[in-house]
Please model this.
Amino acid sequence: MSEALTREKFLSSAEYDELAATLIRNAATNPRDTLLLLVSMHTGARPTEVLSIRKCDLDLEKKTVFIIGLKGSRSREIPLPANIFQRLAIIARELKSEDHVFPIALRTYQGIWHQYRPAKKGVRSLRHTFAIRLYEKTKDVRLVQIALGHKYLNTTQIYVDYSYNQEQLRRLIL
Model:
């Protein structure tokens, strides 16, 4: 991923907060769909990686989900907030170990995203948002690389460049 990161490719803080609130409000009426998007928000996994999560990828003790890297990326283990992991574990309990937690097609996932999205941005905006938020919180590009499953640090560098440029502009102008 060598192209520049633009505002159209990730959720702003307000959009992120709006999405989170919408998912919480709709959790009781549509638990699977809201959980699917929450897992995407909190793992930074590609849509196809989220859809590939199986019951056996959940570590009940550590409250982590193992993301099998796709598109040549590395597999990784990502911790989840307790409430999201608990909801995931409840769904997984009813499955056979080889079953996918979200047995839906990518097109269905995209339809779910269109139903809940706070702005006209693609579903990959959840991955980009995760990366930017993680970098801004930690300032650790290596951690972002690992969390996203990137093989090469220069692939992750776009998030650093974007955050750094925004911080520098803010500092110089304001």
